[in-house]
Design brief:
It contains 17 helices and two strands. α6 (106-116) packs across α11. With 318 residues, it is an all-alpha fold. Strands 1-2 form a two-stranded antiparallel sheet. The chain has helices at 2-27, 29-47, 65-68, 75-81, 86-104, 106-116, 121-132, 139-149, 155-164, 174-193, 195-201, 206-214, 219-244, 251-257, 263-266, 269-279, 283-311, and strands spanning 58-59, 70-71. It comes from Paenibacillus forsythiae. The chain crosses the membrane at residues 29-48, 96-115, 127-150, 179-200, 231-251, 283-308. It is found in: Cell membrane. Belongs to the binding-protein-dependent transport system permease family.
């Protein structure tokens, strides 16, 4: 008797929940209709292509197709991990991303804090325009500028020649590649990345700064105790996303900056995948390398999010 009552109660609960969901959908159906195009496009162009990732586990042949090709399991992954190029390419990718994160992450924050101290609206807008402008320069143009300015006869070498009496081959020497790549990335992207912090700082109540002034707090103390706590949640989210994409370096810029002599440090996973996949035609092997890179990114994202949540009072990406 008791079991039948419990079953009946559960049925009524499920029915009530279903009716509540149906009523909610009827009430807000227009919002879901607005969401539908974005959802459909995401399913088609983001999740649909994931089907092709199975060629990483096959001896893929364009003639036989994806389903007709033979399964080889983890052979392509083992081939990459045992390759003599693996250590060099993996470390090049990791170093370039890690150094870029360490050097580039604080710069937008510092720019936002400095911009927040500019009180004249006209001056502030002009400074912001100068900082944001490099973001809209094409990657091809940026790399072209690097080759021109850092060439043996370029303006930078003309200055160095006053001291060294001979030009420095910046774009050909492997030891200069990472620094040129990272510093040019900071120049083009730091201003644009500071927008989110500037917007957050604009919401700080001016009365807090006035009260701090009355209490005798100096500029650094106000930044430490008022501004930084305001943007800390945003800093955590941006850091998690950046760390989660630590292995996803922009292909275009690295490929355009490569020369035959700087490859020992310039060859990274995205350029390697391009050369092996599209140029050499080894689609299965290049897919395995790309999938390996994606898995590393996912693991890093989950790990960094877990660590940040522990250090940031439970606030993280999810």
């Amino acid at each position: 008797m008791q079991n039948s009552v419990e079953v009946e109660f559960r049925k009524k609960t499920v029915t009530r929940q279903k009716s509540t969901i149906v009523e909610y959908l009827k009430k807000h159906y227009f919002l879901y209709l607005m969401l539908a195009p974005a959802l459909i496009l995401t399913l088609i162009f983001k999740y649909g292509p994931m089907y092709g990732a199975i060629i990483a586990f096959k001896d893929f042949s364009p003639i036989k197709g994806i389903l007709g090709s033979e399964w080889v399991g983890f052979y392509n992954f083992e081939k990459f991990l045992s390759s003599p190029n693996f250590t060099v390419i993996f470390m090049n990718t990791l170093k370039l991303s890690l150094f870029g994160l360490i050097l580039g992450f604080p710069v937008p924050i510092l720019l936002a804090l400095m911009l927040n101290q500019v009180r004249k609206a006209g001056v502030k807008k002009n400074i912001q325009l100068l900082l944001y402008a490099p973001n809209f320069i094409s990657v091809v143009v940026v790399v072209g500028m690097l080759f021109i300015f850092l060439s043996p006869t370029g303006p930078i070498n003309q200055l160095f020649s006053l001291v060294t009496n001979e030009p420095i081959m910046f774009m050909s020497r492997p030891e200069y590649f990472r620094w040129i790549y990272i510093l040019s990335d900071i120049w083009t992207g730091a201003g644009w990345a500071s927008i989110i912090y500037v917007a957050a700082l604009a919401n700080v109540d001016p009365e807090l700064h006035n009260a701090a002034n009355l209490d005798g707090a100096n500029l650094l103390q106000r930044i430490r105790h008022i501004d930084l706590p305001t943007i800390r949640p945003i800093m955590a989210i941006v850091f998690i996303l950046a760390a989660g994409n630590i292995m996803s370096i922009g292909f275009e810029k690295a490929y355009l900056m490569q020369t035959t002599t700087n490859l020992p440090t310039a060859e990274i996973i995205p350029t390697y995948v391009y050369k092996i996949g599209l140029q050499a035609g080894d689609y299965a092997y290049s897919s395995a390398v790309g999938l390996f890179n994606s898995v590393i990114n996912v693991v890093l994202l989950i790990t960094v999010n877990f660590i940040v949540k522990k250090l940031n009072e439970g606030e993280g990406l999810y």
